[in-house]
Design brief:
alpha+beta; 14% strand; eight-stranded mixed β-sheet
C-alpha cells in the first residue's frame, strides 16, 4: 500500500465524513472533511514529497481562517499557538515533517480537532497497549503532554502517545485536562490506564473546566455508554449524583436521554437518585417540556421515547407524579407530557415508538388507554420527519402549518424549534397576499425581475391592513413560511432590508439591513452540513454579512409550489450594485444599478410576464457624483 493510500485509509476510518478527493496522482493527498469546512474545494492535504510527510488545510476563506486563529489565540495562543496561517490556508505551527505515517496521522487528528473537526477517540495500532510505561527521565507524563498540547508542541504530544499512552481528548473545542476524564473519553473499554490512575489516587469526581459541561469521568462513561468503565468507577467510589458544574446535568440524565438502558441500570444499582430536579443550561433545548421545577431524568427519557428506561426509573423510585406537572411552554399542543409524547409520535418526531410500552406507562400513571386527540397521524418514511413544534392550538394556526410544513431530512426529529405564528395569520393564508405560485409561476417572476431589472412593490394595502406587514413600507416580497435561526416564521423585504417577527409574534422588525450584506447564494435541494446527500425537501438561501457571519434561510418544498426564496435571491442581485454604491451614505443612490420598480396590487399579476416591461415600470434617474 502506498503512503498516500495508507494515510487516506487511516483518516477515513477515524473521521466519518472524510471523503478522499485525490490520491496517488502527485505529491498531494486531498481529503474533504465537511465537519471542518463544508465548502467545496476545501480539504485536508498531505504533502508526501521528498520522503517526508507534511500537512495542512487548504481554504481561501480569509474570514474563516481569521476566526480559527482568533479561537486558537483565545485558547492560549500567541507564543503557544497550535496552528498558523500560510498562503493557501492553515497548517500546524512550525510546519512539522514526519517520516512515519502513524505519526503524521496522529498529528493530523490533533490538527483537525484544533480547527473544529471531530474529536477522535480511535487509536492507531501502536497506541492501544494497556501496559503501564516504566517511568524514566524521558517519560512524558499526562500533565507534561497537556502542557505540550497547550503550547503547540505537537512532536512532544506524539512522543507521549508513542510511549504507550492514550490520545489526548477534546470536548467540543476544548482540551480535556482532567487525567481520568481524558482516559475514559479515549477508551472503549476498561483498561490499565484507567485502573492505574485510580490506584494512584486521582480525584474520581474532578470536573473538566472551560468546556461548556464541567464533567467528571463518570459523566463521560455514562454519555458514551461505556458500562464496564461506568461500573468500575462506581465501585471505586465515584459519586453517581455528581452534577456537571457548567451544564448542570447528571450522569443518569445523560444515559437516560441517550437511551442507554444498561448504563441507567448500573447507575440505579449504585443508588443514583432519579428525582433530582435539573435547572442548568444543559436542559435548555427541552426546558419547555419540563415543569417549572426543572428537568427530571424520567421526563427526559419519556419525551425522547425511551419508555423501557422510563419504566425502569419508576420501578427504582422515580416519582411518577412528577409527570402530572404541566409543561412550562404554554404554546405546546398540550401541557400533559404523556399525551404530548403521542403527538410527537404522530408528528414523526419519535420514529421508534413502542406502542405496548407506551400503553404500560399510561397504565402505571393511571391514565386511560385511549389516545389523545392529535389529528390524523402523518405517514413519513424512515428518513423524513418533522421537528417538534409548539404553537397555540387554533384552526387557522393548524391550517397555516399544514399548508407549508413538509417532512424533511434536515429537521427530522429536531426539538427546540421556535414556531412564530402572528395573531393575524389569516393574512398569510390569503391568496391575495401569499399566492400558491407554481414552479412555472416562480420561473416567470424570476425572469421578469432579472431580464427587465425590475423589482416588484407589493401594494396589498387592503389585504394586509389588519397586520403588522403595514410597518414594512413598500414591501418588495414576502416569504410566508421559512426556517432560520432555529425559528419558523414569515420573512419579508423592502428597500431597507430583511424583516421578520423578532420581538414578539406580531411585530415586523428590520433584522438585517442591505448595507450589511456582502453576498447571497441560493441552493436548490441543498446538502446540509454532515449529510451524506442533498436534502430534496428543502432549499437554502445563505446571506453573507460584512462581519463574516452567515444567515441561513431554508424553505420547505412542495411539488406544486415554487420557491419564494429564489425570488428574494433574484431581487438582491438586481439591487446589488445600488446597495454597494450606497454603503455608508444616508440615502440610497436610486437607479445606480439601472433597476426599475413596478407596483403590483394583486399577487396574481406577478406571473404575467408582459407586466414586467410595461409602461407602469418606473426607473429612477441616477445622477453620478460631480467630479
Amino acid at each position: 500500500m502506498s503512503t498516500q493510500a495508507n494515510l487516506a485509509n487511516q483518516i477515513t476510518s477515524v473521521i466519518p465524513d472524510a471523503v478522499v478527493k485525490k490520491v496517488d496522482k502527485d505529491n498531494f493527498l486531498d481529503i474533504h472533511i465537511p465537519s471542518v469546512n463544508e465548502k467545496k474545494g476545501t480539504h485536508l492535504f498531505f504533502n508526501t514529497g521528498k520522503e517526508k510527510i507534511k500537512m495542512g488545510f487548504y481554504c481561501r476563506d480569509k474570514d474563516w481562517i481569521d476566526a480559527l486563529l482568533q479561537k486558537d489565540s483565545n485558547r492560549g495562543g500567541g507564543t503557544n499557538s497550535t496552528i498558523e496561517e500560510y498562503s493557501q490556508g492553515i497548517r500546524p505551527v512550525n510546519n512539522p515533517e514526519f517520516e512515519s505515517v502513524d505519526d503524521a496521522v496522529t498529528c493530523a487528528l490533533l490538527f483537525i480537532a484544533n480547527i473544529g473537526g471531530p474529536q477522535t477517540t480511535t487509536s492507531s495500532s501502536h497506541n492501544t497497549t494497556t501496559t503501564t510505561p516504566i517511568l524514566n527521565d524521558d517519560t512524558i507524563t499526562f500533565k507534561m503532554a497537556i502542557e505540550a498540547a497547550q503550547n503547540g508542541n505537537q512532536e512532544k504530544v506524539i512522543e507521549y502517545i508513542n510511549q504507550g499512552n492514550l490520545r489526548l481528548q477534546w470536548n467540543e473545542d476544548f482540551l480535556i485536562t482532567v487525567e481520568l476524564a481524558s482516559y475514559v473519553s479515549a477508551s472503549e473499554e476498561l483498561n490499565e490506564h484507567i485502573k492505574n490512575a485510580i490506584s494512584r489516587g486521582v480525584d474520581l469526581n474532578e470536573t473538566t473546566i472551560n468546556d461548556g459541561c464541567g464533567y467528571t469521568a463518570l459523566h463521560f462513561a455514562a454519555w458514551d455508554g461505556k458500562v464496564d468503565i461506568l461500573d468500575y468507577l462506581l465501585q471505586k467510589g465515584a459519586n453517581p449524583d455528581v452534577i456537571g458544574t457548567i451544564d448542570g446535568l447528571t450522569p443518569l440524565y445523560l444515559a437516560a436521554v441517550n437511551g442507554d438502558y444498561n448504563s441507567v441500570a448500573s447507575l440505579l444499582k449504585h443508588k443514583a437518585n432519579p428525582n433530582i430536579y435539573l435547572t442548568g443550561e444543559g436542559i435548555e433545548s427541552l426546558r419547555g417540556y419540563f415543569s417549572t421545577k426543572g428537568g427530571t431524568v424520567l421526563r427526559g427519557a419519556l419525551i425522547n421515547g425511551h419508555f423501557e428506561i422510563a419504566k425502569l426509573l419508576i420501578e427504582n423510585g422515580a416519582e411518577k407524579e412528577e409527570l402530572n406537572e404541566p409543561c412550562m411552554d404554554n404554546e405546546l399542543p398540550t401541557k400533559d407530557v404523556v399525551d404530548l409524547v403521542l403527538i410527537l409520535k404522530n408528528q414523526g418526531v419519535l420514529q421508534n415508538f413502542d406502542q405496548s410500552l407506551y400503553a404500560e406507562i399510561r397504565a402505571i400513571l393511571g391514565k386511560d388507554s385511549n389516545s389523545v386527540d392529535t389529528n390524523e397521524p402523518i405517514e413519513v418514511d424512515d428518513e423524513l420527519g418533522y421537528p417538534l413544534l409548539s404553537y397555540k392550538n387554533s384552526d387557522q394556526n393548524k391550517e397555516y402549518v399544514k399548508k407549508y410544513l413538509r417532512p424533511t431530512k434536515t429537521l427530522n426529529g429536531r426539538m427546540g424549534v421556535k414556531m412564530v405564528i402572528p395573531d393575524w395569520v389569516e393574512v398569510l393564508l390569503d391568496d391575495c397576499v401569499c399566492f400558491d405560485f407554481s414552479p412555472e409561476d416562480i420561473a416567470i417572476i424570476r425572469e421578469g425581475i432579472s431580464s427587465n431589472k425590475v423589482i416588484p412593490i407589493l401594494k396589498y394595502d387592503l389585504n394586509i391592513k389588519e397586520s403588522n406587514l403595514t410597518d414594512i413600507k413598500n414591501m418588495w416580497w414576502i416569504v410566508p413560511f421559512a426556517f432560520w435561526n432555529n425559528t419558523i416564521s414569515w420573512l419579508a423585504i423592502n428597500k431597507d432590508g430583511l424583516y421578520a417577527p423578532y420581538n414578539d409574534n406580531n411585530d415586523a422588525t428590520l433584522i438585517l439591513p442591505w448595507d450589511r450584506v456582502t453576498d447571497i447564494c441560493f441552493e436548490e435541494e441543498y446538502e446540509p452540513l454532515f449529510a451524506d446527500e442533498a436534502d430534496s425537501t428543502m432549499n437554502l438561501l445563505t446571506i453573507t454579512m460584512e462581519n463574516g457571519g452567515e444567515l441561513e434561510i431554508s424553505e420547505f418544498l412542495h411539488d406544486a409550489r415554487g420557491s419564494y426564496l429564489s425570488v428574494l435571491y433574484e431581487i438582491y442581485w438586481v439591487r446589488q450594485e445600488t446597495i454597494e454604491v450606497s454603503k455608508g451614505l444616508p440615502m440610497w443612490k436610486e437607479g445606480a444599478g439601472g433597476e426599475g420598480f413596478r407596483s403590483f396590487p394583486e399577487s396574481v399579476e406577478l406571473n404575467h410576464l408582459p407586466y414586467w416591461s410595461d409602461s407602469d415600470v418606473h426607473r429612477p434617474t441616477f445622477e453620478p457624483d460631480a467630479q
